[in-house]
């Protein structure tokens, strides 16, 4: 129990102990526990606004605090969570600190907790890995464009190009942040490596085209750049469109990555097309002047400019003997295995075909076997104690808080009241929801309060003031806040009437006929047709106006403490005359009731992501999908794992749209490129047919890959 079961009743043991023998639910007096591998302690913290109210209480040790602001309370709560977590998990990774390992987790309700803090740290810790990746990009770019011919070598312009790409990416990132996009793990740990790689690829296209052009004249440079603009623009357009498809998702973590990437692709295109060519032209002038790469102040004696005039321009860019890396790879591997006719090429082609078909088959099979989902254990690093907690939680405890919510339904209708109870009890009865007594649901508890089964008069705070609904007069029409009973037509749970001691649960709020109050049965026999044949009855209230419901619910809250998360009018609670800073539960509720909530509930035994998806689908069948009375389930499993209930549909949709866009863009660029070629002798129909064929091949390649 928490607070002796007053708040949420008895807790399911699956929330508190794990890795047990015998398993949860199977141990008892005759089959006692033999081993417990994990124990979970639950602590409930107030939100900042509640903290402000609580410290004003006259009973506070040291006296009330009147000037605490909500912002101060939020900071205090943040520091408390951090201090509690540090103290609780001290020496968690020290094997010599004892036989029990302590790890902790604080949620983000009210103030920053474990998840937000760890993700902030992880988001900002990608700098070292990013630096390593940038160094690798610089290294391989230089290696592949280095040449022993120090005039033809393009190391310096390569370094400039990579630097421009990096600057463009960070410029795009800054623009995204200024536009309101928050830096997150997805952006900091994926986009730098993807976007910088894409930009460097476009830079290679430009440099390899210029490398194949042995002329240094301005006209030849411009002609080469004309050929480069099309493929660079095509790849950039395709990348932009692919990232734009991600905006189909309604998950902020996905579409913010997409929008940042779209900005970055636009910046990279502008950099490669509008900025980088200027440096390439300067490098061309360096070559024409016979100056050494990198050490451009040194000039070789041979007249490169004169020699270049005798060289016919060529579009070929095959590697030369002066290109050590590319020459080696081309001469020793690519040419004999792929290009040169003979047995090695035939064998290579056959092996590539077999490997392609094999990989395609394995990929299709693997796509149907993989487990979906990312849990906290996938976000928290191993060297964080919170990561250890997340792994224990998934393996042994696997539970999350959740709740049920109703909007502006017709709360005065008995059928609605019973339907709400039916929804609640059916959700609780599903495989992954911990048991909760029905009287924890506010509409059920309130309905019982309106009947003769109300027990609040046994514990009155004022002996002269009855506290049950049937004793409270509604001044609007002089009637009582009195309910009635209806036949249990929905098969709702009945209250447990067990004579055994230590009974932890009460079950439902409905009653068998033999447990009904005789006076109620007498009245029901006169008002309900066939009452003598009814075996079970459920409490309801009927014939009430919204004003009467408002009045009676306010009285119920005042006397019993209430519940239901009802929305209250601001500053309507009266201060306890006996204690300054303590307020009574006599707030005015907003009426008609726009929103109400179920009690604290827990989803349990979520040992895999599929378990969580199954839980969502099972519970929503009784709540979100109910057409008679609509309710909404919420909580961490619904807020986070909801995306995985439709992940395959989303995958197929985005993949289809992406391939379709890629096909259209490819066809357009192929058509424009061929049509604008001055020497082509094809008709428009032939160009269109060829472009469609090329686009189809590109689309099929994308689909297979």
Q: Quick one: overall form?
A: elongated
Strand runs, count? 9
Q: Which oligomerization state do the chains in this entry correspond to?
A: single chain
Roughly how many Å is the radius of gyration? 36 Å
First-last Cα distance: 55 Å
Helix content: 40-55%
The helix-strand sequence is EEHHHHHHHHHHHHHEHHEEHEHEEHEHHH
Describe this structure in words.
The protein has 705 residues and is mainly alpha-helical. It contains 21 helices and 9 strands. It has helices spanning 48-55, 70-88, 114-123, 127-145, 155-178, 185-212, 218-245, 252-288, 304-309, 324-339, 343-369, 376-379, 385-397, 414-428, 442-449, 518-527, 546-560, 609-620, 636-641, 647-675, 684-704, and strands spanning 17-21, 35-39, 400-406, 484-487, 511-512, 536-540, 596-597, 601-603, 631-635. The strands form 3 sheets. Strands 3, 7, 8 and 9 form a 4-stranded antiparallel beta sheet that branches. A 3-stranded antiparallel beta sheet has the order 4-6-5. The longest helix has 37 residues, at 252-288.
């Amino acid at each position: 129990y928490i607070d002796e079961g007053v708040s949420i009743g008895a807790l399911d043991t699956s929330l508190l102990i794990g890795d047990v023998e015998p398993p949860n639910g199977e141990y008892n007096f005759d089959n006692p526990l033999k081993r417990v591998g994990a124990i979970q302690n639950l602590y409930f913290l107030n939100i900042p606004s509640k903290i402000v109210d609580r410290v004003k209480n006259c009973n506070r040790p040291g006296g009330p605090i009147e000037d605490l602001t909500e912002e101060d309370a939020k900071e205090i709560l943040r520091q408390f969570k951090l201090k509690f977590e540090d103290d609780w998990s001290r020496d968690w990774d020290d094997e010599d600190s004892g036989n029990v390992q302590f790890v902790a987790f604080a949620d983000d309700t009210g103030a920053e907790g474990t998840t937000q803090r760890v993700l902030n740290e992880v988001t900002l810790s990608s700098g070292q890995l990013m630096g390593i990746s940038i160094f690798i990009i610089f290294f391989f770019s230089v290696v592949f464009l280095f040449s022993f011919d120090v005039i033809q070598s393009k190391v310096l312009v390569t370094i400039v190009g990579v630097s421009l790409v990096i600057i463009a990416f960070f410029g795009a990132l800054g623009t995204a942040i200024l536009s309101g996009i928050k830096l997150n793990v997805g952006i900091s740990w994926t986009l730098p490596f993807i976007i910088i790689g894409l930009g460097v690829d476009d830079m290679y296209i430009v440099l390899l085209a210029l490398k194949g052009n042995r002329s240094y004249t301005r006209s030849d440079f411009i002609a080469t750049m004309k050929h480069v603009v099309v493929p660079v623009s095509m790849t950039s357009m395709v990348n932009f469109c692919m990232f734009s498809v991600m905006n189909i998702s309604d998950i902020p973590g996905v579409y913010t990555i997409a929008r940042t990437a779209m900005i970055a692709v636009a910046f990279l295109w502008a950099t490669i097309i509008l900025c980088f060519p200027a440096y390439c032209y300067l490098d061309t002038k360096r070559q024409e002047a016979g100056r050494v790469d990198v050490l451009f102040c040194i000039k070789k004696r041979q007249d490169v400019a004169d020699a270049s005039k005798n060289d016919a321009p060529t579009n070929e860019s095959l590697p030369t003997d002066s290109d050590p890396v590319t020459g080696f790879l081309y001469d020793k591997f690519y040419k004999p295995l792929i290009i040169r006719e003979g047995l090695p090429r035939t064998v290579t082609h056959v092996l590539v075909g077999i490997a392609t078909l094999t990989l395609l088959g394995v990929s299709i099979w693997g796509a149907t076997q993989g487990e979906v989902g990312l849990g906290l254990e996938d976000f928290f690093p191993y060297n964080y104690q919170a990561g250890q907690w997340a792994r224990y939680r998934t393996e042994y405890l696997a539970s999350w808080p959740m709740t049920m919510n109703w909007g502006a339904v017709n709360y005065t209708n008995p059928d609605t009241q019973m339907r709400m109870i039916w929804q609640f009890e059916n959700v609780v009865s599903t495989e992954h929801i911990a048991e909760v007594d029905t009287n924890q649901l506010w509409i059920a508890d309130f309905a019982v309060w309106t009947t003769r089964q109300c027990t609040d008069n046994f514990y009155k705070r004022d002996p002269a003031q009855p506290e049950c609904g049937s004793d409270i007069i509604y001044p609007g029409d002089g009637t009582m806040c009195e309910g009635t009973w209806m036949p249990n037509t929905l098969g709702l749970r009945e209250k447990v009437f067990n004579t055994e001691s230590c009974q932890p649960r009460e079950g439902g709020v409905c009653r068998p006929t033999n447990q009904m109050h005789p006076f109620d049965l007498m009245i029901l026999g006169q008002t309900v047709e066939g009452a003598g044949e009814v075996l079970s009855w459920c409490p309801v209230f009927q014939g009430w106006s919204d004003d009467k419901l408002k009045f009676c619910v306010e009285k119920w809250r005042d006397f019993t403490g209430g519940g239901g998360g009802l929305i209250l009018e601001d500053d309507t609670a009266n201060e306890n005359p006996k204690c300054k800073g303590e307020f009574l539960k006599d707030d005015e509720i907003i009426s008609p009731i726009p929103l109400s909530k179920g009690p604290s509930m827990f989803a349990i035994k979520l040992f895999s992501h599929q378990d969580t998806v199954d839980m969502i689908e099972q519970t929503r069948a009784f709540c979100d999908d109910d057409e008679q009375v609509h309710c909404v389930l919420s909580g961490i499993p619904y807020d986070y794992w909801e995306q995985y209930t439709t992940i395959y549909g989303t995958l197929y949709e985005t993949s289809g749209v992406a391939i379709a866009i890629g096909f259209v863009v490819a066809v357009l660029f192929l058509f424009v490129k061929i049509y604008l070629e001055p020497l082509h002798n094809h008709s428009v129909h032939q160009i269109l047919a060829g472009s469609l064929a090329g686009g189809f091949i590109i689309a099929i390649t994308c689909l297979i890959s």
